[in-house]
Amino acid sequence: MQQRLSDRVTQMxxxxxxxxxxxxxxxxxxxxxxxxxxxxxxxxxxxxxxxxAAIQAVKDDYHSYTPVDGYGDLxxxxxxxxxxxxxxxxxxAQIVVSTGAKQSLSNLAMVxxxxxxxxxxxAPYWVSYSDISKLAGGVPVxxxxxxxxxxKVTPEALEAAITPKTRMMIYSSPCNPSGSVYSKEELRxxxxxxxxxxxxxxxxxxxxxxxxxxxQHASMASFDDMYDRTVVVNGVSKAFSMTxxxxxxxxxxxxxxxxxxxxxxxxxxxANCIAQRATIDALNNNPEKIKYMIDAFKERRQLVLxxxxxxxxxxxxxxxxxxxxxxxxxxxxxxxxxxxTIENATDFSLFLLEEANVATVTxxxxxxxxxxxxxxxxxxxxxxxxxxxIKEAVS
Length: 395
Prior knowledge:
Blueprint: H1 7-10, H2 16-29, E1 35-36, H3 48-59, H4 72-86, E2 95-98, H5 101-112, E3 118-122, H6 127-135, E4 139-143, H7 155-161, E5 166-172, H8 184-194, E6 201-205, E7 230-235, E8 248-251, H9 254-265, H10 273-284, H11 291-308, E9 324-325, E10 335-337, E11 340-342, H12 345-356, E12 358-359, E13 361-362, E14 372-375, H13 380-394
Parallel strand pairs: 1-12, 3-4, 3-5, 5-6, 6-7
Antiparallel strand pairs: 2-8, 7-8, 9-14, 10-11, 13-14
Helix pairs in contact: 3-10, 4-10, 5-6, 5-9, 7-8, 11-13
């Protein structure tokens, strides 16, 4: 039989973070002592009150198909969370619960983009934004930034990237991979540009909202002139360490939420029933209950920055959120290390895996070819040993 795949899947890139994690796993299984700093997965256990809610849901015999857009009381918990934490007001028809924030993003691309529509991606951006856009027929348009601008795009750069074909902008704050956090003033400056182009929908990925080491989190949807054009994407994977529970959600204009509900009804239907019940308790509790995780991440950030800045050729800014550092390692381009010539960040990341036994992710996958992403969602012991190995390998 002829093995014929669709063009859409053959042209799709493999997720760089998952590919590196798989490669590290293979090497580990072959006997190598690999330290993984590639995945964006908190190393904490799920809070006990969330586990208790899941156990209670099992005892209460939750097992049936769920509503496509989520249980009504979960949607109410999301509405309460948006009001409490963000000052945003939604009604139940504006909320859609999905199997992870990634599905929320995919739903949005599928219902809003037509072939040829352009999608603005302030770089660096999360690896899947680009291919999710392409899969829906969109054309990614990268807006570069650099370590000198704290990996944030300027209003001037944003306006220069807009064309008559621009339909969407996707950004994250706190940002994966840079950890940069847009202040309310910085978002307002970008909104002043976007306000002139009412056909552009803004997708604000706020999955790292609570892992924030500076001022209170700001959302583009908080501006009156952007509320009806902004979709807020969030979930419980990062703040509650519930990555495998796969619950994401959106707050959106009602017409967009209805379309996402329709799309999801033909793809996966409703999200897992037990995870939804547990998420109600997660969101209804005060965020102070997870502050111990945020405090630990902040301590690790300082440790990573001290160790990274002690490695020759590494240049890092101070991230204000998430759990990543995104050092510029372009000083090594064109150099030969242990017989291997480094031409780009991908070469460098592979070099670290093979020579230092440390898994990182190339910045190429995030739209910045000069950097690598290092996740500090790991133990202090692993962080110290990994960065010791890296320093030794490049020395």
